[in-house]
Amino acid sequence: MTRLGSSDLSVFPLSLGGNVFGWTADRDASFAVLDAFVAGGGNFIDTADVYSAWVPGNSGGESEAIIGEWLASRRPEGLVVATKVSQHPQFRGLSAANVRRAAEASLGRLGVDAIDLYYAHFDDETVPLEETVAAFGDLVADGLVRNIAVSNYSAERIREWIRIARSTGAAVPVAVQPHYNLVHRNDVEQSIIPVAREFGLGLVPYYALASGFLTGKYRSTDMAGQNSPRAAGAAKYATAHGLRIIDALEEVGDAHGVSITATALAWLRAQPAVVAPIASARTAEQVPDLLAGGRLELADDEVERLRSVSEWTPAQV
Fold first, then answer.
1. Predicted pLDDT of residue 317
2. What sign does the dihedral 214-226-61-136 (CA atoms) show?
3. Which fold has domain 2-211+268-296?
4. Which of 12, 199, 248, 258 gives 20 to 30 Å between its CA and that of 166?
């Protein structure tokens, strides 16, 4: 287990992504994934109130509802659940009133007394940051939320949030959730990691496996005929450069007897300020590779090799 930023949360260094629950994993498959994750030593689950409103017939909150039903059925101890606000169709934005209503709705779906980690999912510059900071602080003061965090915020806005919180006595973020992986590095390494290290924030990167590309499933530059949601996201990385990264991951992983998936997650964990990459699983059979990625310790030369082979990645990818 490892400490999440300046919080008192002790988490397994791999967070199970709940974005697939109610989307590509139905209730029973989601229960099986959650069971396998906890049985294997995992205790950190990430979701959002908007998951998965994009699916026909869904309205948002499906992932939270499935997790809540599973929590009520299993009653696991020591579990850390993170969720987010700002994108649910009924609770868009970060006004104080909306943040409060969304948090209460998430609490109801999850069936918990308090949210362990509550993220501002995306910045909302239509609302004064002072209002949003105060709203999150009030949730902590009132016991609805234990810790707060930000996701998809620029370094400048993170700094401003912390400045306002410190000056007003509101709760200060303990974590930041950026898009970060071996094929999407530059912006995070240049701006987010420095601010995270300065303020003691734990990084919990999403898209840790680049929409599945870093599992090694996509080994060709010809992605024609790949029509699944994951394939569409992975297609842009299936270049000659990207495939060299996969080859290097495979060689490093083979030396440890682990998969490309586990090796990609281990590399991410080795980066400054990273506490727990987020990765999802549609089936219980996919969970062991994720858990292995939370345990594998790469040698310095292996981390450097993967860093070097992936340096080509442009910041906008």
1. 43
2. positive
3. TIM Barrel (3.20.20)
4. 12
Q: Model-level pTM?
A: 0.94
Q: What percent of the chain has pLDDT over 70?
A: 94
* CA neighbor of 180 nearest in space, from 253, 116, 275, 82: 275
Residue spans per domain, the chain: 2-211+268-296
- Asked if pLDDT for residue 224 goes beyond 90, the answer is no
Dihedral sign from CA coordinates of 157, 94, 275, 185: negative
pLDDT at 315: 43
Q: How many residues does the chain have?
A: 317
For tokens 């999440």, the residue is 4
The separation between CA 214 and the C-alpha centre of its own chain, rounded to angstroms, equals: 16
| CA atoms of 120 and 125, how far apart (whole Å) | 12
HEC per residue, the chain = CEECCCCCCEECCCEEECCCECCCECHHHHHHHHHHHHHCCCCEEECCCCCCCCCCCCCCCHHHHHHHHHHHHHCCCCCEEEEEEEEECCEECCCHHHHHHHHHHHHHHHCCCCECEEEECCCCCCCCHHHHHHHHHHHHHCCCECCEEEECCCHHHHHHHHHHHHHHCCCCCCEEECECECCECHHHHHHHHHHHHHHCCEECCECCCHHHHHHCCCCCCCCCCCCCHHHHHHHHHCCHHHHHHHHHHHHHHHHHCCCHHHHHHHHHHCCCCECCCEECCCCHHHHHHHHHHCCCCCCHHHHHHHHHHCCCCCCCC
Residue 15 forms beta bridges with which residues?
Answer: 278
